[in-house]
Amino acid sequence: MNHLPEFPAEEERYRALHELDPRMPGALEVLVLGLHDESWRVRHIAAEALKRLPSPREVAERLICVLGERGETGARNAAAEALAGLGGASLGPLVRLLAHPDPDQRKFAADILGQLGQRTAELPLVQALEDADLNVRVAVSEALGRVGGEHAARALEALLEDPEPLLRLSALEGLALLRCPPPLSVVVALLGDMRLQRSAFRVLGLVPQVAATERICQGLASPLRSVREAALGGLGTQTALAEPVRRGEIEAVVRAALRRLPDAAERLAQALEADDVTVRAGALVAVAALGEASLAVPVAEAAREDRLLREVLNTLCRLGPEGGRALLARMPDLSLPARAAAVEALVDLVDPSSVTALCALLEWAEEDLRAGVVRALGRTRSPEAVPPLVDLLVDPALAGVATRALGVLAGSARPAVLAALEEAVENRATPAAVAALARVGGAPALPALRRLARDVEPPWRAAAVEAAGEVDGAVGRELSRAALADEAVPVRAAGARAMGRLGGPEAGALLLPALHDEDVSVRLAAVQAVGECGAVERATELETLVRHPDGALAVAAVRALARLGAASPHVLREAAGHPDAEVVKAALSAGAVSEEGVALALALLGHARWDVRAAAARVLGDSGGPECLGAARQALEAEPDALARQTLSDAVERLSRR
Amino acid sequence: MSRFDDSRPEMTVEEFRLLRDHVYSHCGILVHEDMKFVMERRLWPRLEALGLADFGAYHRYLRYDPQRHAELEAAVESLTTHETYFFREPSQLKAFCDELLPVLEKRNGRLKRLRLWSAGCSSGEEAYTLAMLLKDSHRFDDWDVEVYGTDISRRVLALARRAEYGPSALRATSADLLERFFVPAGNNRVRVRDEVRSWVSFGHHNLLDETGSQLVPRMDAVFCRNVMIYFDQAARRRVLRIVRDRLVPGGYLLLGHSENLLNLGADFELVHLRGDLVYRRPELPGLTGGEGR
Fold it and tell me: In Å, how far is A423's CA from the nearest CA of chain B?
């Protein structure tokens, strides 16, 4: 097999570098030798190992020397890879390299500084735009697009007037990366240059003005596919960045432009197949504007790209019942992601004529899609949808969603839904039908619910107790009281939940045994119920649960105490010391508006978990006084997590205004 | 949220992050920052099924509920896209057939045994494709052949075992192959022929689970295409360690056309075929092919 050459010696070299002790004297030179190896794997492992050496500055200086070895392409590329991997330690040597007499070296420096993407390189790179060598200037321009900053954006904008097209192109691309569009008139002027057109449309998409949309739409009419697609890319970007209220304005402009094109649908179908995801995004916006139902299938197929799901759903929902019928007819042909998106959209697109096709889909669709089909059936407003929905109540996976769908359907077909549910309960099809019956049947269903609350099987008793509470408070309380003494766990838990919803003067006393139940799910339901019904006399029992090792119980207890207005400073401190971060966050939330809560938040700014620190910052932003500003600023400076930093930054801003 | 309320709760950035981290720690799948909407849409049916009011409650459910392990699997299933089709990436498959299968035939000729692994097999199209290619080559007709398909999603494994597919899965399948390897199954769908299915088996496996990977036999080649795109660098390294461990020395790893092992420091060597680049677990010194299983 001469095309599958063997590399026994290479493997040995690879292993040797892989296992090299980075603290070993001379390790640096061994690894530099590895950078010069003929094998890609060996060079790569050497570059990786160089990152682990104890003196990164020394390594960076040595690697800079390797960059200067002309004729050693593999070694230079591996050294560049290693320098990029060294991070901050490479910055100084690379900035100095920007002044090297060899333009090749200066270009390497710019490329790697771009990869590092560190803002401290911004000014040296801006200065390097004065370089005499065009290739270096282009590399610097590209690097500035990655490094960013105000100076970088200004410098790139100035380059748009450079006579050299390559520089103008890299500057435009850089500005697109930085999302810093130059003034509209500047971009429009660049659209005339075919070499810059694609990038110019991309930047045009960053301009939030109707005039920009109009100019993009002129591109949609181009006879050249590349120009049309560039324009669609701009449209996709503009729509994604636009405020929701501007969406209608953009679509109106697009609609007007597309209606002038006799082959608009065909062009959009072509664009939906484009490789560039921003082009497909723009095509989706255009299809939505046009309301072109014949494109329902390619639109659904665009959902194969996860990032387009929002736009796909939005577009499908704009295609109306005709689009829904097109999707239903082609369901078996769609890919799985397309089918999932189509099913989700169908919930909004179905009408009474869809029932048969939806039922057919239920026969073979994937398990998680069937829930969507069930929801769609509930929205058909057709009595014909009742029997299949009632049949689904026996399916444990779909019973809940079928119950809700029947509830929705009862809005337009109540008699049919009610009759079917009564029959389902009578035939003991499923306890899930009980909740639906109570919801749709109301008070006339109470005798049936009373009977079912004495049923032999616990699931029926549990369902009846909870359902009765939704129909009639007095009956609900009576049945809940009995349920709390039931021998079956699900029934006791149902009794606690129902009692919590119904409340009443006796609720606290009745829930006491459940708070000490042997089963944790009953205790959890009881804790939540105490909070829900406001049984403040049970606060003592809840306080003991704040320290409970079961995080779920402790969280529920803290939340319930907060609802009761009984989250004392002592409780908050206890909860804040809980090993489970969810309990700590519950404490912060419970004390959010109190002095104790603010004190707690200040103390928790240094918590080990980012989500606790973020929760603490939120409390400070909501309730802290100006005296908290210093601590918040200090925490902001030290905060390593981006999301917590954002929350802290918001808090600092709010605190500074007080 | 009312039981009959059709409105959906919005996922906050913080809830997104907590759920994302939870999924990541379970299976290494990294949901990118810009996928919040996708996560929200895909997990909402789970909230609906469980009767939960918001994503914070769903996170607590995943943390505390006795059913949390099963629910986490359901969440992962909802989040992973399973878009694949038969005879995907034909140039790679051609290189596999023309250049690797002869090597494997020669190497394993004494034992007459061949093991291939479709890691992250989704609904089975790739595993069946490999079996079809082996059948088509006629090199292994009297061999002990197994193509293993594994996936973290039990739902797609059920689809794979059913072996019924619609037009979308067949979009790169020629009429000739369709005729030879499938039978009609009604409703515009087809079923993989039994002779192909007999060479393919499926199993549930989390690619990050080193203990579970011991159940996977030593393989002559692993197809792990368009799977590692779901992982971050650290998880990719772990997956590659497991894949390497499951390969016989000299066994091949085939990735998707947009994937490579750059920056992963993996213990594989790059093999330049005429039609593709593949990776290979280096041979152990002193051992010949077919050993070390």
Answer: 21
A578 secondary structure, DSSP code: -
A-interface mutation test, from B2, B5, B6, most A Cβ less than 10 A away: B6
Query: In the numeric block, which tokens belong to residue A401?
Result: 């969603």
Could you tell me the CA-to-CA distances from A196 to A159, A171, A188, A245, A550 in Å, in that order?
13, 10, 11, 31, 62
Distance, first Cα to last Cα, chain B: 56
Mean pLDDT (chain A) is 92
Distance (Å, whole) CA A592 – CA A347: 40
Residue from A14, A301, A333, A336 to probe the interface with B (highest B Cβ count within 10 Å): A336
Helix (H, G, I), strand (E, B) or coil at A319: coil
| Inter-residue contact B247 to B222 (CB < 8 Å) | yes
Are A222 and A261 in contact by the 8 Å Cβ rule? The answer is no
Provide ipTM, 2 decimals.
Answer: 0.73
Phi-psi region of A193 (alpha: psi -120 to 50; beta: other; left: phi over 0): beta
Phi and psi at residue A646, in whole multiples of 5°?
A: -60, -45
Active site residues of B: 42, 151
Which residue type sits at A202? R
CA-wise closest residue to A349 among A311, A323, A329, A331 = A323
DSSP A531-546: HHHT-GGGHHHHHHHT
Sheet holding B164-165, edge to edge: B164-165, B189-192, B182-186
CA B222 to chain centre: 10
**CA A577 → CA A437, A539, A590, A603, distances in Å?**
46, 19, 14, 11
**CA distance, residue B69 to nearest chain A CA (Å):** 15
**Contact between A270 and A321 (Cβ < 8 Å):** no
For residues A226-256, one letter each, b for 16 or more C-beta atoms within 10 angstroms of the residue's C-beta and e for the rest, the string is ebbbbbbbbbbbbbeebeeebeeebbebbbe
**pLDDT tens sequence across B2-47:** 333 456 789 999 999 999 999 998 888 888 888 899 999 989 988 9
Q: Edge-to-edge strand order for the sheet containing B200-204? A: B200-204, B144-151, B113-119, B219-224, B247-255, B277-280, B269-272
C-alpha B289: how far from chain center: 26
Per-residue DSSP letters for chain B? --TT----PPPPHHHHHHHHHHHHHHH-BPPPGGGHHHHHHHHHHHHHHHT-SSHHHHHHHHHH-TTHHHHHHHHHHHHS-----TT-SHHHHHHIIIIIHHHHHHHTTTTTEEEEEEET-TTTHHHHHHHHHHHHHTSSTTSEEEEEEEES-HHHHHHHHHTEE-GGGGTT--HHHHHHHEEEEETTEEEE-HHHHTTEEEEE--TT-HHHHTTSPPEEEEEETT-GGGB-HHHHHHHHHHHHHHEEEEEEEEE-TT---TTTT-S-EEEE-SS-EEEEPPPPTT--TT---
Tokens standing for A265?
Answer: 């649908």
Task: Give the Cα-Cα-Cα angle B182, B186, B191 (nearest 5 degrees).
Answer: 25
A434 near A401, Cβ under 8 Å?
no
The CA radius of gyration of chain A, in Å to the nearest whole number, is 33
For tokens 């932003």, name the residue.
Answer: A621
Residues 213-242 of B with CB under 8 A from A: none
pTM for the model stands at 0.77
B265 and A45 in contact by Cβ < 8 A? yes
Report whether pLDDT(A5) > 80: no
The DSSP call for residue A246 is: G
CA B271 from chain center: how many Å? 22
Please give the pLDDT value at position A9: 66
Express each pLDDT in A579-623 by its tens digit: 999 999 999 999 888 888 899 999 999 999 999 999 999 999 999
Residues A461, A463, A466: CA angle, nearest 5 degrees: 105
The residue to which tokens 């400073």 are assigned: A569
Is B201 in CB contact (< 8 Å) with chain A?
no
Please give the distance of CA A148 from its chain centroid, rounded to a whole number.
25
Q: Are A529 and A497 in contact (CB under 8 A)?
A: yes
